[in-house]
């Protein structure tokens, strides 16, 4: 005990970081499967160079870990934890390039204590590999530009390509690079350097599979991620709910103190540029080039568009380094205290499920639902299972059940990447099916009393069964409506 105490006293920052990471690791076995975990695991089980709604890096990583360690919920969570831990290590190496030893301690404590690192450590999303490759891209670009390491241009290109293979938000990396070279007079000569363009070409080479898949599928993924959102933004409908919702989300992910520092230094640099037309030093400008387009770009949309809580995450990498320049030791201490309290509360929710979550975005009930459905299938042979909620129920059941579970393409609706599996639905003609519908609000144990209008034309008869009620720690927390549908017709 004395040796541990001495170690903490000698390396307090390291102790805090390891403390948060150990806390997260200890919670991993208690985390249930999230629908996102299941959906991106489904990516890995159905290999493709790209997928309808995202590139496939998170799926590839989950597949590798599953092959090595087996298909369990813990292994899925372990994948996220390991990749995010590598992001923290990469962040440390990046922050080391800009900060003094004391400020470097602030930076690593700040990022390790944030709630967004916990989310990335617990929940499989494309942001998990994106943040790793984003951090590596910025690190290698720094070494290429400021340390004149030619090989780093190649490494940066590879990292930028892999970041794009993780999530399309990575397109902001080359935009940030070009913006830096344009605004920084000291390094503007890079625009004439072949190494910059070699780096960009390497990045493009590593994204070729994504482009090829999109070309072969009428650019379905690119259009899904762009056209619908562009249409909504172009309507320019002001909504205070969106704006204050974004502030709430960002305050949760970064915690209020760090988010406040973000707003302060963003305002400071913008004011200096607008009033004095004065740019900061080249290193600060470099950090801002990979912060402003993502953070300020998405934040500026919040009054008219619902910006998802994870869209700004890449900006946190250089943003936290900038925040470490301004923050004092006292506020770092407050950040850690607030973070510790929030993480304890979250752990109580994970362990005891104190507050029911009125949403399908929860880690409870999926395995129990799969067990109940398998029992029903034993009573009704030659039956398949499908759902109609985007991807959540279908993906979760596919993780736990041996038989294939279908999505809403069974009833002629668009079904994300489930539409691209090459399924011949006519082979199901004549079979019976169980249709699963989640009651997100769950106010009572009654039947629903009706079925979606879209379902009836595809079956001869649909009968509602008693709903499945899921209990956790003696409390009834989830409810699923169940329908037995007879004699499927792929073409109604």
Automatic annotation (TrEMBL):
Membrane topology: Multi-pass membrane protein
Main location: membrane
Transmembrane segments: 12-34, 64-92, 104-122, 128-146, 195-213, 242-265, 285-305, 311-327, 334-355
One Pfam match: PMT_2
Annotated ranges, domain Glycosyltransferase RgtA/B/C/D-like: 53-213
Keywords assigned: Cell membrane, Glycosyltransferase, Membrane, Transferase, Transmembrane, Transmembrane helix
Origin superkingdom: Bacteria
UniProt key word Phosphoprotein: no
Protein name: Dolichyl-phosphate-mannose-protein mannosyltransferase
């Amino acid at each position: 005990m004395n040796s541990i105490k001495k170690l903490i006293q000698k390396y307090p920052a390291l102790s805090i970081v390891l403390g948060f990471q150990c806390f997260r690791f200890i919670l991993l076995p208690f985390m249930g499967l999230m629908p996102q975990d299941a959906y991106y695991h489904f990516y890995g089980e159905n290999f493709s160079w790209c997928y309808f709604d995202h590139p496939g890096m998170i799926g590839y990583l989950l597949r590798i870990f599953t092959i090595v360690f087996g298909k369990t919920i813990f292994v899925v969570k372990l994948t996220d934890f390991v990749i995010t831990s590598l992001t923290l290590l990469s962040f440390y190496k990046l922050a080391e390039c800009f900060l003094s030893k004391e400020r470097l301690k602030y930076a690593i404590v700040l990022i390790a204590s944030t709630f967004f690192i916990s989310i990335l450590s617990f929940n499989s999303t494309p942001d998990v590999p994106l943040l790793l490759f984003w951090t590596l891209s910025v690190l290698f670009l720094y070494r290429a530009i400021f340390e004149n390491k030619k090989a780093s241009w190649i490494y940066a290109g590879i990292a930028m390509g892999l970041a794009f293979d993780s999530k399309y938000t990575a397109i902001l990396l080359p935009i940030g690079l070009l913006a830096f070279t344009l605004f920084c007079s000291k390094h503007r000569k890079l625009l004439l350097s072949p190494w910059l363009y070699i780096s960009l070409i390497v990045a493009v080479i590593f994204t070729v599979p994504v482009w090829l898949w999109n070309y072969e599928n009428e650019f379905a993924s690119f259009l899904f991620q762009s056209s619908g959102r562009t249409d909504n933004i172009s309507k320019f409908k002001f909504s205070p709910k969106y704006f204050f919702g974004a502030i709430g989300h960002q305050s949760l992910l970064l915690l209020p103190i760090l988010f406040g520092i973000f707003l302060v230094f963003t305002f400071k640099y913008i004011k200096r540029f607008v009033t004095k037309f004065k740019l900061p030093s080249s290193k600060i400008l470099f950090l801002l080039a990979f912060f402003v387009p993502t953070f300020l770009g998405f934040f500026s949309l919040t009054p008219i568009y619902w910006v998802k809580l994870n869209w700004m995450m890449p900006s946190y990498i250089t943003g936290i380094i900038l925040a470490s320049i301004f923050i004092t030791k006292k506020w770092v201490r407050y950040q850690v205290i607030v973070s510790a309290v929030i993480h304890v509360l979250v752990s109580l929710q994970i362990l005891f499920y104190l507050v029911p979550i009125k949403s399908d975005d929860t880690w409870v009930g999926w395995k129990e639902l799969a067990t109940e459905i398998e029992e029903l299938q034993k009573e009704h042979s030659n039956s398949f299972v499908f759902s109609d909620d985007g991807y959540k129920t279908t993906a979760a059941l596919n993780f736990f059940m041996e038989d294939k579970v279908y999505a809403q393409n069974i009833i002629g609706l668009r079904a994300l990447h489930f539409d691209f599996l090459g399924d011949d639905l006519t082979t199901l003609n004549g079979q019976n099916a169980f249709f699963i519908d989640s009651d997100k609000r769950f106010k009572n144990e009654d039947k629903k009393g009706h079925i979606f209008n879209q379902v009836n034309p595809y079956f001869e008869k649909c009968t509602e069964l008693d709903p499945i009620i899921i209990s956790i720690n003696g409390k009834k927390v989830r409810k699923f409506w169940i329908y037995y549908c007879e004699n499927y017709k792929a073409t109604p």
